[in-house]
Amino acid sequence: MDKEMKRILKSNIIKFCIWLILLFFCYLYIQKNPAEKISIFSGFEVMYQRAEIFVNKVLNRNSEALKSKFDYEKAYQELIMIGEGNGCNDKQLVQEMKDTLEELKNESTKTISDTLPGYIRKANEYKMRVATQCKK
């Protein structure tokens, strides 16, 4: 190796070490702040969902129903977090919401346009029940 190549190698090794140190501090920060960790992982989930919606749109499938399905999955997750966060005394209500969310996630894209109104109605009922039964 000539002098120039050694200088470039040394510079890259230093940059790599600095990058590792910064990555370590980022890891420590994320471990101490769970909200940041959730926002990072939910970002990947949203990107995956948007890609799935785009593929369905290109293939002329019902992409709007799929988008609604993802929106209501998010709504159910928020209701569950509200119920658990407010110390809901009715554990059966939280479990019902979790079961309904699993049913919605397992729903086929072919039948979602027919069954989505039922899930919307259930979400509104759960929202009312959480508002009345789950208060701190």
H/E series: HHHHH
Could you tell me the number of beta strands?
A: 0
Structural class: mainly alpha
* CA distance, first residue to last residue: 69 Å
Q: Quick one: overall form?
A: elongated
What is the number of helices?
A: 5
* Amount of beta strand: under 5%
Contiguous uncertain segments of 5+ residues: none
Helix content: over 70%
Give structural notes.
This protein is mainly alpha-helical and 136 residues long. The chain has a domain at 62-133. Helices cover 85% and strands 0% of the residues. It contains five helices and no strands. It has helices at 3-32, 34-58, 63-85, 91-106, 112-133. α3 runs parallel beside α5 (112-133) and α4 packs antiparallel against α5.
Summarize the structure.
The protein is mainly alpha-helical. The protein is 85% helix and 0% strand. The chain has helices at residues 3-32, 34-58, 63-85, 91-106, 112-133.
Defining key terms:
elongated, mainly alpha
SSE inventory with pairings:
Blueprint: H1 3-32, H2 34-58, H3 63-85, H4 91-106, H5 112-133
Helix pairs in contact: 2-3, 3-4, 3-5, 4-5
